[in-house]
Amino acid sequence: MAGLSGNGFGVLRDGTIDLRGAMTLSTPIAYTLRPGQLVIGGACRSFDTHFRWVNTQFGANTQKSDGTAQVMGAVKLPWGNVTLTHLVMSPAGDSVPNLQFTFANDWQGATWSFGIHDFTARGQAAGDNLPVEDAKNSESFFMVGTKELPDQSYLSLGLGTTRYRGPFGSYSRMLSSRCRGYFEYDTFNWNYGVGTEFKLASKKAFLTLGMVRGNLATWTFNVVF
Description:
Blueprint: E1 39-46, E2 65-77, E3 80-88, E4 95-103, E5 111-117, H1 132-135, E6 140-149, E7 153-160, E8 166-176, E9 179-185, E10 190-200, E11 203-212, E12 216-224
């Protein structure tokens, strides 16, 4: 989970958070949130195929998982919506802010968006398989387009820098009335999983279960206020 709109929950074209919308694990989609919604959530990635609780011991040599937490909301501009996110990446409080803008009008049958992951260039969220010198700065620019397809399915394709060093993309579709499947390429890995929506004290909540690069069990949990 990278602290971006659609990471761990569905988003419709108008920015409404809903299971029927586009969903990913860590890659951008072009749909940003509608103002008036606040998302608070977390994720845990195990270092094997077993799902685990989030490790809370910073620097522990025996840790078998890591986790992230995110808070995001949106503001409306005359030209479209902007989603702002604060992503926490460790028990030590390491964090980065993200910003993403979606154009109000579609072009060529798709919705378009651009954004900045870690616009303060504080680093430590640059993704896998990067040179050591690049991992110190995770400031990443990206552009992405999302197209709605039949049967409540969505295809997103984009291009980015640093954390998304090259092309990335995702596809999601409803598997049943209560379950959405997603499949993504984050430039480094192929990731996949399923998600569901339910009520938690009258609030919308989302739970996803999936695999990063096919062998790292990952779950996310997000609540909408």
